[in-house]
Design brief:
The protein is about 40% helix and about 20% strand. The chain has about 290 residues and is an alpha/beta fold. This is LysR family transcriptional regulator.
């Protein structure tokens, strides 16, 4: 039985555009002109009778059919890449990952042994840190970091892993002492726990329409995990995301102080463009998707 598959070059063009969101970026990655990429995409859509993309400002977004097709196509390319990598004697023996401390400790570390099944014969070095690596000089292979909306890593490949809702939390004992909070003005009167600076809280208040100078009192801690621990101890109100505190809320250790629907940014996997399509990074991406989606 013969398989009437679309041309591989057209599938590669589709996968690259779907992943990067840009015809030009896909052309740069595949070392062909953007007009050639556009032609391959158009031929693929005509062949299958499906529209895969729609224009979104200066970029492209997948249609529903395009998203479903991409999820299957990208897994097929990952399988080919991983199978090919097993034939190479020069596979990297270590994958260096720098990660935001809260995500590293709360989400990744408990399941780190599972990564071995994704990366056989490759040692994983996970470094929880707030310092940003220079990926272009091979200081790290990949970075898992929270990027605020509009924040970019020039010259790098950035893939969104999770876009959490951001909200204030406190312990029941703290709220018992200070009373319930029903509005932003009441929240501003409480001690707020800050992650290194007041910037995150300022962004959050700005999304709620409270811009301008604010008097934000409270301790400044080193990372998000410490702000959560401080809130658990009843020391104030912490700003955090659903990804990090869902378990504490389910057990009643923390309470959402004020119900809002604010998003400030996303947790992202950042690599160099050339490294983003290598077998270890593809395996890492698949593992992270299982944990963070």
């Amino acid at each position: 039985m013969s398989h009437r598959l679309p041309p591989l070059i057209a599938l590669r063009a589709f996968e690259a555009v779907a992943r990067t969101g840009s015809v030009r970026a896909a052309g740069d990655e595949l070392s062909v002109s953007h007009t050639a990429v556009s032609r391959h995409i158009q031929n693929l859509q005509n062949r299958l009778g499906v529209a895969f993309f729609e224009r979104n400002g200066r970029g492209l977004t997948l249609t529903g059919s395009g998203e479903r097709y991409y999820q299957k196509i990208c897994r097929a390319f990952e399988a080919i890449t991983l199978a090919t990598s097993e034939l190479k004697p020069d596979l990297p023996t270590q994958l260096d990952i720098w990660c935001t401390p809260g995500i590293a400790s709360i989400k990744l570390l408990p399941r780190l042994p599972d990564l071995e099944s994704y990366l056989p014969r490759c040692d994983v070095a996970l470094r929880p840190t707030r310092r940003r690596p220079d990926l272009t000089t091979n200081e790290a292979d990949a970075e898992i970091v929270f990027l605020f909306d509009g924040e970019e890593r020039e010259g790098c490949h950035v893939e969104v892993l999770n876009r959490p809702r951001m909200f204030p939390v406190a312990s029941p004992s703290f709220l018992g002492r200070h009373g319930p909070v029903s509005c932003v003005d009441e929240l501003l009167k409480l001690p707020l726990i800050h992650e290194e600076s007041t910037g995150q809280w300022e962004r959050w208040f700005d999304r709620l329409g409270r811009s301008g100078p604010l008097s934000l009192r409270g301790p400044k801690l080193w990372n998000g995990q410490q702000t959560i621990e401080s809130a658990l101890l009843g020391q104030g109100v912490a700003m955090t995301g659903s990804l990090l505190v869902d378990q504490h809320i389910e057990t009643g250790e923390l309470v959402e102080v004020l119900s809002t629907n604010v998003h400030l940014g996303s947790y992202c996997l950042v690599t160099t463009k050339s490294r983003s399509v290598t077998a270890p990074i593809l395996a890492l991406r698949r593992w992270l998707a299982d944990i963070l989606e």
